[in-house]
Amino acid sequence: LLTQIANTKQALLNHAIETGPSFVTSSPSQEQQACEANIFQVCPTKPYEDMNYVGRGLIITGLVLFAIQAFLSVLLIVWTVLYRRRNIIKMSQPEFLVLIAFGCLVMSLSIPPLAVQGAYRYVQDPISGEQRTDMPNGAIARVDAACMAAPWLAGLGFVLVFSALSAKIWRAKRIFDGAVRFQRETVHAKDMLLIMVVMFIVEVALLLSWQLVSPLRWEREVTSWDENGYPTESIGACRSDKALAFVVPLLSFKGLCLLYALYLCYITRKVPSDLTEQKWISFSI
């Protein structure tokens, strides 16, 4: 049998190992089959590869902080709804308080996707360690979704919070300006919703353009190899060729939102605290 194997350079795919009264059969691994197909070659051992995954401790810390933020947001929403008929809550505009708490909840939802990570986009060849572009890794689709989920949730949550804050201060400004002129000023809900809708549309348009043109995708890059060409260390991250073209407008828009909110806080600094929490809003911004 050994002579035949040496002459034909073929290998046994299933080995029968005699252990006494019974036989144990098992199929060799792909690495072993490759070694047997090249009987007279010494097969190198594939080394351990450091994938540089985010540490478990950091992930747990992030999820705990997310749970705390989510719990507080839900608690404040419930509390506001239960006590919405009290004068202090009425004057604080409970509908906007709920929107602010809900926006904080949405922003906190961007934390769990950051913990999603994966290996290579394509299945690695068990012998050479190279990626086989004809065999995509099905698990990467979940990581790709998480890559874009984070900016979507963070962006939409931000817009909900700051559009509600801006509308809240703008409403108080309109009422106070009318009182100064000894005129009764009526501010309808649709007037305040216009501010929120405009900010929301701009944010969605920017995020949707990013999603359609050049979304973030999970990519893993090998940073070191051993003497046999096997990868020994790699780094994975969400990447996009044109990310900067969308990140800059998104950050600029958020910066303008912050400046507008600060401007409203400044011009309403003399409004009585019963009408607006200008000091606390300015501090939070």
UniProtKB/TrEMBL annotation:
<protein>
    <recommendedName>
        <fullName>G-protein coupled receptors family 3 profile domain-containing protein</fullName>
    </recommendedName>
</protein>
<feature type="transmembrane region" description="Helical">
    <location>
        <begin position="192"/>
        <end position="213"/>
    </location>
</feature>
<dbReference type="Pfam" id="PF00003">
    <property type="entry name" value="7tm_3"/>
</dbReference>
<feature type="domain" description="G-protein coupled receptors family 3 profile">
    <location>
        <begin position="145"/>
        <end position="285"/>
    </location>
</feature>
<dbReference type="InterPro" id="IPR002455">
    <property type="entry name" value="GPCR3_GABA-B"/>
</dbReference>
<feature type="transmembrane region" description="Helical">
    <location>
        <begin position="152"/>
        <end position="171"/>
    </location>
</feature>
<feature type="transmembrane region" description="Helical">
    <location>
        <begin position="96"/>
        <end position="116"/>
    </location>
</feature>
<dbReference type="InterPro" id="IPR017978">
    <property type="entry name" value="GPCR_3_C"/>
</dbReference>
<dbReference type="GO" id="GO:0004965">
    <property type="term" value="F:G protein-coupled GABA receptor activity"/>
</dbReference>
<feature type="transmembrane region" description="Helical">
    <location>
        <begin position="243"/>
        <end position="266"/>
    </location>
</feature>
<dbReference type="GO" id="GO:0038039">
    <property type="term" value="C:G protein-coupled receptor heterodimeric complex"/>
</dbReference>
<keyword id="KW-0472">Membrane</keyword>
<keyword id="KW-0325">Glycoprotein</keyword>
<keyword id="KW-0675">Receptor</keyword>
<keyword id="KW-0297">G-protein coupled receptor</keyword>
<feature type="transmembrane region" description="Helical">
    <location>
        <begin position="58"/>
        <end position="84"/>
    </location>
</feature>
<keyword id="KW-0812">Transmembrane</keyword>
<keyword id="KW-0807">Transducer</keyword>
<keyword id="KW-1133">Transmembrane helix</keyword>
